[in-house]
Design a protein that fits this description.
Number of helices: 5
Mean pLDDT: 80
Number of strands: 4
Shape: elongated
Distance between the termini: 48 Å
Order of helices and strands: EHHEHHEEH
Oligomer: single chain
Radius of gyration: 16 Å
Helix content: 25-40%
Structural class: alpha/beta
Low-confidence stretches: none
Strand order of the largest sheet: 1-2-3-4
């Protein structure tokens, strides 16, 4: 099950407790839960963001970077995520179109 998490939800003081309470109440295996966070949410917060992500991963919750390419992150930042990267549609919209040739 994939769930989009907003910046407000992620920054909530009780975010982790809420996620784990829902998992407990529903009996859902944490490995079956994927939280989708935009790159802009992940880029803000520094150590607190890293700590939350580490706790989620340690409990088995899957993470996905949503809308990658619309913010300010670099490819090197992706090392923190070993599961899923969802590239924004604006980058792949015309992927099947014939390539245009650049003048030399």
């Amino acid at each position: 099950m994939a769930v989009n998490i907003s910046a407000i939800e992620f920054r909530s003081e009780n975010f982790l407790e809420g996620v784990f309470a829902i998992l407990k109440d529903t009996g859902l295996d944490p490995r079956l839960l994927e939280l989708e966070l935009t790159e802009s949410v992940l880029m803000k917060g520094g150590e607190s963001t890293a700590s939350i992500l580490k706790t989620l991963k340690a409990r088995g919750v899957q993470l996905a970077v949503d809308d990658f390419g619309t913010g300010y992150s670099s490819l090197s930042y992706l090392r923190k995520f070993d599961r899923c990267l969802k590239i924004d549609q604006s980058f792949v919209h015309e992927l099947t179109a014939a390539p245009t040739r650049r003048p030399s």
